[in-house]
Amino acid sequence: MFLNQLKNELNNKQALFIGEETALRSAILIPLVQVNNEWHILFEVRSLTMRKQPGDISFPGGRIDSTDASPMAAAVRETHEELGVDPACIRVLGQMSTYIASPSFVVYPFVATIDHHHIQSFNKQEVEEVFTIPISWLLNYEPYMHTVTVQPMPPMDFPYDKIVNGEKYQWRPRAIEEWFYEYEGYTIWGLTARILKHFVEEIIPV
């Protein structure tokens, strides 16, 4: 009886990863727009007055609210709030693989087409400007990479007396790959570059 119940629980839909329910969850949209009959990706430059990452380049999106019906609904809502695009003009094509930045931060990326002519006046409190990059250019561009090493730093009250080797425990540093795209004076890096790289290399049909 117990094993049958356990099997049923294991076969029920579970969280994507342990800790997903308590992680900071965000949803983003990769907006595809047509410019002169050619498909482009639209990017935002974050407002220079924002507290976090001012001036960085990003996709529209943000934190998933408790009132959002789904991550996709959050991505559409954020795109509407940031770019002023009518949700009815946003055609979601599908969802990409979830990006797990850390056990406490996860991003759900979606791909959609929008009519950039509907971007009448974007939210200046969040968006400094918008620009587009042709997909054909991205397919022929080689992004470059730099490695950042992150070293764990336990707090002063860490219970070393509970672990083998105590204060001599060898914490392993972690290497993070940071990718960069350079386009007409714009630099795309960080989370946006990592998601863009996956989209260009794994999703776009060649």
Structural classification: alpha+beta
- In one word, what is the shape? globular
Which range does the strand content fall in?
Answer: 25-35%
Low-pLDDT runs of 5+ residues are none
Number of helices: 4
Largest sheet report: 8 strands, mixed
Number of strands: 11
Provide mean pLDDT, rounded. Answer: 92
Helical residues, percent: 10-25%
Labels describing this entry:
4 helices; 3-stranded antiparallel β-sheet; single chain; alpha+beta; 11 strands; 206 residues
Task: Give a brief outline of the structure.
By secondary structure, the chain is an alpha+beta fold. The protein has 4 helices and 11 strands; from the N terminus they run H-E-E-E-E-H-E-E-E-E-H-E-E-E-H.
Which helices and strands, and how do they pair?
Layout: H1 2-11, E1 24-35, E2 38-46, E3 57-58, E4 61-63, H2 71-83, E5 91-95, E6 99-102, E7 105-113, E8 127-134, H3 135-140, E9 144-150, E10 174-183, E11 186-188, H4 190-203
Parallel strand pairs: 1-7
Antiparallel strand pairs: 1-2, 1-4, 2-3, 2-8, 5-7, 6-7, 9-10, 10-11
